[in-house]
Design a protein that fits this description.
heterodimer, A: alpha+beta, five-stranded antiparallel beta sheet, 17 helices, B: alpha/beta, 5 helices, 5 strands, about 45% helix
Chain lengths: ~650, ~130
């Protein structure tokens, strides 16, 4: 300030001015010191004069209560409202008591609510400033914290770090645990001090901590060879908050669990070894060069040591390549494999259900393969026996079904035969009457030639009906002709003679293969001939639309029988109707073209003769029907 | 020469067949509709040839055959049958008992009836 003798203002007492200036400067310094102290130690002060109705807050208190300085009129309500709702009643009680009786306030509570909560201590006492009657209360609010000497004395290893992960605290227990005193580590990054924690779960943990969350990492393996540290640690992390609630860093608590973990591992190993040694499974371990480094007692009988020769008992050279290939794949990929191995043994091939699992080293890639093999030979044999039994059962059921079908067919044939025979017999008498009436009329009618001619035709038609009736009787029970010794050449020749005209007019080629020396058969000539005529007529009808028209007749001796195959070059019989071709009245021919009695009559006749008539399945080669007839042995020359 | 023919059949159509086949070629045909009547006719006046049905109500053909054998053992008998199995065993037994008979298969045409008749009464006919 410029001073001159002409100036208006002249301080009366320069010495008093200097004293005032000095007091002001001291006051400002004190003010600065308090502000610095409040910031560094995270506290704030206040003064409350209820009689005057006002409250005074320091800048530090504004920050601590969460209000930007100057934004809120400092008063009693705003002060209490900054506390957690649950803590407000307790605080009010102490403040009122202090105001009434002068009792000092000592209160621990929480600031804020919901998201950001900070623990604080409140201390205050009453006073009478300037000796006046009005009471006022003045006090401080400070963030609660654990005193460093407690941390230092704690038996647990505790460290703290800032947002840069630089260590700010490293208590003596941590120094002892990690073999590094605080002087060496404070200010360095956590990952430098605990290099094996970098990239591990612990690092992810402190990232979460800096995001404001608690977290815990169990069984973290830490190796610091320079410090001679190697072991497992559980680490608990919790975030540290600044005065305004922002995360300023974190605290970690280290606990070594190496001994517990090793004990647990030993116990597990003992238990699993016991299981491995005495279980029913063969257990082996192979190293990366496929050498057997372990085999349990199931494979190695007591008194024998595990060694190179052991695996050969399970996989001799025959199975070695497959065995090796699978093991190499497991080693390469780390993926487990499961395979059934067939191993020859003196008592026959044995089957092993074999599983291979890759075993990783303590860190890093697969170091060995564990092989568990169970002998499932008996199980497999039982399964095979069941399958075999099932197959036999199915075959038996199929035979039964076929037999039932045949039985039903026989029954139908019998019933139909009885019916046909009855009708044929009943028709015989009227037939005989009509035939003779017509004949008599034809002979005794003095009528014109044309009428006699008509009656002649009527007589011829009646003879056809008579023949049909005889056929029906044959179908019913062929008894009117004795069986005898027959030459197949003659019977088949006669049947072919009857068909010669038919075959020739339809350009059907006939191939006949009847070897010389074919034995004679025992049958009824008329009926056997009827059977062959029926078969030839069927062949003729089957060739109606065929490109190549050929019928072959081939006879062979089969033990005590002669089999005659009648084959046509037609389209064959569709699978769906094969079982019906011997049904009476079943036919594939258009109405009027066939009676459908041919094959069923023929089969009935053959069964009656002690022979058979069957369909031979020859896919893509037309239709073959085989007649089998009892043969007569040339030596005995007698009927069966 | 005896040219009387006896036909025993319960069916008039069959009896008619024999009458029409034989009466206009010089034979005298007598008919009976059951076994008893036929045996009575044969006993009274023995025919030259008897045609006999097997299946008849009352006395059947085989039993009639045995009675005929008693009343006129020398008269030839032709069984006219459609070969129903029912009577064949009895017929076979009758043959083993010494009864003689021929067998003709039903139905018979006029020609067949005449051929049989001629061959029995006058020796085989040359057709």
């Amino acid at each position: 300030m410029p001073m001159g003798k002409h100036g208006k203002y002249h301080p009366p007492m320069p010495s008093a001015d200097a004293a005032l200036r000095m007091r002001r400067e001291r006051c400002a310094l004190q003010w600065q010191a308090q502000a610095t102290a409040e910031r560094l130690l995270a506290f704030g002060t206040w003064m409350w004069a209820p009689g005057r109705g006002y409250m005074e807050w320091s800048d530090g208190l504004y920050v601590l209560l969460g209000y930007p300085p100057g934004t809120v009129e400092p008063d009693y309500q705003a002060f209490v409202a900054a506390f957690h709702p649950e803590d407000r009643p307790g605080l009010l009680v102490q403040l009122e008591a202090c105001l009434d009786s002068g009792a000092p306030v000592s209160f621990a509570g929480r600031l804020g609510h919901a998201g950001q909560v900070r623990r604080v201590r409140v201390a205050a006492e009453a006073s009478r400033p300037s000796g006046k009657q009005l009471r006022c209360v003045q006090g401080a609010v400070q963030r609660a914290g654990i005193p460093e000497d407690i941390i230092a004395a704690a038996p647990n290893a505790v460290f703290a770090f800032d947002r840069d992960t630089r260590l700010t605290l490293w208590n003596p227990a941590a120094g002892r645990l990690m073999h590094r005193p605080a002087q060496q580590v404070i200010g360095r990054r956590v990952a430098e001090v605990l290099p094996s924690l970098a990239g591990s779960r612990a690092e992810r943990c402190w990232q979460r901590v800096l995001a404001g969350q608690d977290c815990r990492a169990r069984g973290v393996r830490a190796v610091d060879r320079a410090a001679g540290v190697e072991g497992f640690f559980d680490i608990d992390f919790t975030p540290l908050h600044g005065p305004t609630g922002e995360v300023t860093g974190g605290v970690g608590m280290l606990r070594e669990v190496t001994a517990q973990r090793r004990a647990q591992a030993r116990l597990r190993a003992r238990q699993s070894r016991s299981l491995m040694e005495h279980g029913p499974d063969i257990i082996m371990r192979f190293d990366r060069r496929l050498r057997c480094i372990y085999a349990n007692r199931t494979l190695v009988p007591p008194g024998h040591a595990a060694g190179e020769d052991i695996p050969t008992t399970l996989h001799p050279d025959a199975g070695r390549s497959l065995w090796h290939r699978i093991m190499l794949r497991v080693l390469a990929t780390g993926a487990p494999a499961s395979v059934e191995l067939f191993v020859p043994s003196p008592t026959g091939t044995r089957v092993f259900d074999t599983r291979m699992v890759a075993e990783p080293g303590e860190h890093g890639p697969v170091r060995s393969v564990l092989v568990v093999a169970r002998d499932i030979t008996e199980q497999k044999q039982a399964e095979e026996a069941i399958r075999h039994a099932n197959r036999r059962l199915e075959a038996a059921m199929e035979r039964l079904r076929v037999r039932q079908r045949q039985d039903v067919q026989e029954e139908k044939l019998t019933a139909l035969g009885t019916l046909a025979a009855g009708i044929a017999h009943e028709l015989n008498n009227p037939m005989m009457g009509v035939m003779n009436y017509v004949d008599y009329a034809r002979r005794n009618l003095g009528a014109p030639e044309t009428v006699r001619d008509v009656l002649t035709r009527a007589a011829r038609e009646l003879e056809r009906i008579r023949d049909l009736l005889k056929n029906m009787l044959a179908f019913a029970r062929p008894i009117d002709e004795p069986s005898g010794e027959l030459s197949l050449h003659r019977v088949i020749g006669a049947a072919l003679d009857l068909m010669t005209h038919e075959f020739r007019s339809r350009e059907i080629e006939v191939k006949l293969d009847l070897p010389y020396g074919l034995p004679a058969v025992w049958a009824k000539e008329g009926h056997l001939q009827q059977v062959f005529v029926n078969l030839l007529m069927n062949a003729r009808d089957a060739l109606a639309n065929a490109l190549r028209k050929e019928v072959s007749i081939r006879a062979v001796q089969e033990g005590t029988r002669v089999r005659v195959d009648v084959t046509d070059s037609g389209a064959g019989i569709p699978v769906a109707i094969r079982h019906r071709i011997f049904d009476p009245f079943f036919t594939t021919k258009p109405p009027g073209k066939g009676t459908g009695l041919g094959l069923s009559i023929s089969r009935a006749i053959m069964l009656e003769l002690g022979g058979d008539l069957v369909y031979q399945d020859r896919p893509g080669r037309g239709t073959t029907l085989s007649v089998s007839i009892p043969a007569i042995s040339s030596k005995e020359g007698e009927s069966p | 020469m005896n040219r009387r023919i006896l036909t025993i059949d319960d069916d008039p159509a069959v009896r008619d067949a024999f009458v029409f086949a034989l009466s206009d070629v010089g034979y005298e045909v007598e008919t009976a509709s059951d076994g008893a009547e036929g045996v009575e006719l044969a006993r009274r006046n023995a025919p030259a040839l008897i045609f006999l049905d097997l299946r008849m109500p009352g006395m059947d053909g085989v039993e009639t055959l045995r009675h005929l054998h008693e009343v006129c053992p020398r008269v030839p008998v032709y069984i006219v049958t459609a070969f129903r199995p029912d009577y064949l065993d009895e017929l076979a037994q009758a043959a083993r008992d010494g009864l003689r008979f021929g067998i003709a298969s039903k139905p018979l045409t006029s020609d067949q009836i005449r051929t049989i008749t001629h061959s029995v009464l006058e020796g085989p006919e040359v057709m």
